Amino acid sequence: MAEKENKVEEEKTAEAEAAAREKAAAEPEAAAGPGEAGQAEEAAAESVSDEAAAGPEAVEAEAEAAEVEEAGAEETAAQPAEKAEAKPAAEKAKAKPARKAAKKAKAKAARKQARPKQEIKVPQVTALDEKDAGLKPEVFAVEPKLGVLHEVVRAEFASMRRGTASSKNRAEVSGGGVKPWRQKGTGRARAGSSRMPHWTGGGITFGPTPRDFSFKVNRKVRKQALKMALSVRVSEGSLKVVDALPFDEPKTAAAAAVLSGMDVNYPLLVLLTEADENAAMSFRNIPRVDVTDTGDLLVSDIMAARTVLVTREAVEKLNAMGDAK
Fold first, then answer.
1. What is the pTM of this model?
2. Considering 21, 34, 305, 306, which has the largest number of Cβ atoms within 10 A of its Cβ?
3. Of the given ranges (20-24, 104-108, 275-279), which has the lowest mean pLDDT?
4. Are the C-beta atoms of 226 and 295 separated by less than 8 Å?
5. Which residue, among 228, 64, 240, 217, has the nearest Cα to 144 in the 3D structure?
6. Cβ-contact 163, 213 below 8 angstroms
7. Collapsing DSSP states into helix, strand and coil, what is residue 221?
8. DSSP state of 288
9. What is the CATH number of domain 113-161+216-325?
10. pLDDT tens, 239-273?
11. 171 and 203 in contact (C-beta within 8 Å)?
């Protein structure tokens, strides 16, 4: 057996030496000179002799290492290909929402073009000065008093409060009728009910109860405060009087066009009468614009607005306050 193994080893070494010689002979002579070719043959022969000396185990180990290197090279070559395949898929996924948005925008633009443009009919509004408006000094030239204005505004805000906040005291909370433990002998603090205010789930001490926050203000004082608020706006030049607001139909765009042609500041109060229903519905959709009827006018509405827009008919109703005693 030993002789057979030696023969096999000798055959392998001979084959390796022949292969090394053929490889050295196949190299181009231009790349290396005659001396270098001889050196390459000697090196190949030495490497073959070293491999033969090392034995079959070293040859097998080198072959395994070469296979591992080839497998690693194949994996590294496959990774860029996988990444290259994944990139188009990711780009397609990103491009889908963009294409949908562009398609929606295109359809919207097409619908907008196909829709016939409606001409906005803006009513003719004529601004009036103080003389032409007929502002009575008994209503629009009253000396303001801060105390009266403050009292009336506070009363208006108080009457708007619902006063529905409520809580339960220890008598109204459910449970707590039995003494939690005996008076003595437990080492704990004495307790007569589990619904005491300092216990969890107990009653609320001095909590809110439903109440009416409104308080009475004399009718004459309230009317005087209304005159003072109107007088303040007239003295500031922020009360604008117009002849009329002739709206044939409710149209917010037409109301916005009317305001754009006037020198007004916001918040704006539009004071109308019951006959101006179309105008009221046109102005009420504009942000920071409050529409009020003369019968529902509050002092707080006038003081909160920077500009008050009034029609001539509304001014006549307000002038009636100066006639009444």
1. 0.61
2. 305
3. 20-24
4. no
5. 228
6. yes
7. helix
8. T
9. 3.40.1370.10
10. 999 999 999 999 999 999 999 989 999 999 999 99
11. yes
DSSP string, 119-178: PP-PPP--EE-HHHHT--HHHHSPPP-HHHHHHHHHHHHHHH---------TTTSS---S
Question: Looking at residues 38-67, what average pLDDT do you find?
Answer: 54
State yes or no: pLDDT of 30 exceeds 50: no
Residue 292's DSSP bridge partners are 271
Map out the domains of the chain as residue ranges. 113-161+216-325, 162-212
- Start-to-end C-alpha separation, the chain: 142
Q: Which residue has the tokens 């033969």?
A: 52
Residue for token digits 């005693």? Answer: 325
Cα 51 to Cα 21: distance, rounded to the nearest angstrom: 15
Give the 3-state secondary structure of 249-268: CCCHHHHHHHHHCCCCCCCE
Rounded to 10 deg, the angle between the 2-26 and 34-54 helix axes is 160
